[in-house]
Amino acid sequence: MTESKSGISSLIDVKADSQEALAISQFVQRKILLRLFLGWLFLSFTIGGIVLWLEISRFQQFVHTLALEESAVLSGESSYDLEQLDSPTYQHLTDLAQQLVKRNFLVVELYDINKQLKIEAFRPGQKTTEQWINSHRHRFPKRGDFFQEFHLIQDKLLLVILVPIKGPQHAVMGYFEGIYQVDQKTRNSIKDELFHTLLLITISITFTTLLMYPILLMLNRELTKLSTDLLTGNLELMNVMGCAIAERDSDTNSHNYRVTFYALRLGETIGLRHENILNLITGAFLHDVGKIGIRDPILLKPGKLTPQEFEIMKTHVTLGVDILKQSSWLRGACDVAHFHHEKYDGSGYPEGLKGEEIPLNARIFAIADVFDALTSKRPYKESWTVHDAIAELERDSGSHFDPRLLRIFVSIAPALYQQVTNIKENQMIALVKRCISRYFLATATGTQSPNHKP
What we know:
The chain is of the alpha+beta class. The chain has two domains: 39-191, Beta-Lactamase (2-Layer Sandwich); 230-445, Hypothetical protein af1432. It has helices spanning 2-75, 87-101, 127-134, 184-248, 254-269, 274-285, 296-299, 307-314, 316-324, 334-339, 360-375, 386-395, 403-421, 425-445; strands spanning 105-112, 117-122, 147-153, 156-166, 172-181. A hairpin with a 4-residue loop joins β1 and β2. The radius of gyration is 43 Å and the shape is rod-shaped. This is HD domain-containing protein.
């Protein structure tokens, strides 16, 4: 019956691991797709905007060229003195202006050097257009420069141009001003060309983005594999150090796993932040790492320590902190290693902290550590029942332990104890490894998710 339960438990664990791996894989793929989409959006707007600006500039130059070619008929009449026009000359210039308004110009005007209007022609019905333009009237250029300005009025694309008329010595003789209307055929051609250009760019960016997806996915898998391998190595190193400490202290390594499990579940229950849970896990595994520096006659003494020996034993917390600080990956464990012997009423060591002065992770671990010590069989004592262990913890509520944390732990302790004692030791160790590896794997892959239980 026990073997059957173990088999079912193993199947459930394998299924849970598979679901966890699938969930992480899907999360990573969604993350890559989201970033690719944002990249596609950014490139489309950026490159599309630049191309749009360049194309509009090109089309403006194109329209400007068309307008100049037509206006050359009149603006090239530089041999006339616009200040003193006789009747034949006036009629000739007026006829030329009328020819322009029959083409694409709506309004044509000639000004003399003093900027006085001399000749004017406009297409019938377009006087209002000129009046609207006049309300936004430009200034004549100071140095005889060319001027142009685009307007969109009543769905008509208009170009206002002002061309200096220069004489034989390149002296300004007057000004030609016209309102040029871009014909519908030219406008449609411009729109079609602009649309096709932007469409081609969008398709190119989309194709490039889709091409990058499998490449990024492959690179991400390689990076995740490297991160996972590094994580596995770190976890194995942490486990080896925990085993070494347990062997040195004549303890069993299963204590490290059970106490880590109890502390982890209590941290999850109170909603401890992901980063703090990682530090709690490493601290629980390596809380007594400083005992490596305690001499055997004191560490392994079967009887009660003398006051002098106890003072030496207490230095294991500072020794542990010195060891853990050597590694950036283990530095977060210092709170547990340094303060797990502090008591809520301030009677603990090494700093004599009290209440919430004691780091939260250390207060959590203190409860888990004592609970496991009471419920575990040791060479010098039998294991206590869960009921008796909880009663003992409650007697020290407010003196040794944080009352709030203890109340929460008491509510979950029986179920946690059953979970780790109803299976074989190797299964318990495998269970705890899965619990803790998920947190570190989530950090390595950037898939931090809400706390959950297998």
